[in-house]
Amino acid sequence: MPVTIFSMEMGQQQLVTRMVGSQGRVDQTKMRTGQLSDDDWSRVAEAVDKLGKARIAIDESPGLSPGEVRARARRQARVSGKPGLIVIDYLQLMAGGDAASDENRATVLGDISRGLKGLAKELQCPVLALSQLNRAVEQRN
């Protein structure tokens, strides 16, 4: 089944490099520096072959709104067929109104989440929205 990834943080090349390293079980530092053993190269080649056969579309446009994600996901569904999964990386980088205060930002993120839930229902597929936690919360007593 097709997978669509909306990567608002990483570019397509960086994301694909990570996917190849993960699939091939090759250290990311070795991938970046090119210091790969023959065994590493073999695993990279297998990973590239496997990922090349996968139906993965990556949209690296920054700051998309829920409406823009919905329009692009619909377009991708027309091209590739019913999606098996839509991934949003990551939620806080989506556009969605003015969020000057933390309270307002929480409201905006709630609105974005509801929009993505609507997209999941419309396209009848899971939407995985990645989010980054605020580490300051861990410091509270």
From TrEMBL:
<dbReference type="InterPro" id="IPR007694">
    <property type="entry name" value="DNA_helicase_DnaB-like_C"/>
</dbReference>
<dbReference type="GO" id="GO:0005524">
    <property type="term" value="F:ATP binding"/>
</dbReference>
<protein>
    <recommendedName>
        <fullName>SF4 helicase domain-containing protein</fullName>
    </recommendedName>
</protein>
<dbReference type="Pfam" id="PF03796">
    <property type="entry name" value="DnaB_C"/>
</dbReference>
<dbReference type="GO" id="GO:0005829">
    <property type="term" value="C:cytosol"/>
</dbReference>
<dbReference type="InterPro" id="IPR027417">
    <property type="entry name" value="P-loop_NTPase"/>
</dbReference>
<dbReference type="GO" id="GO:0003678">
    <property type="term" value="F:DNA helicase activity"/>
</dbReference>
<dbReference type="GO" id="GO:0006260">
    <property type="term" value="P:DNA replication"/>
</dbReference>
<feature type="domain" description="SF4 helicase">
    <location>
        <begin position="1"/>
        <end position="141"/>
    </location>
</feature>
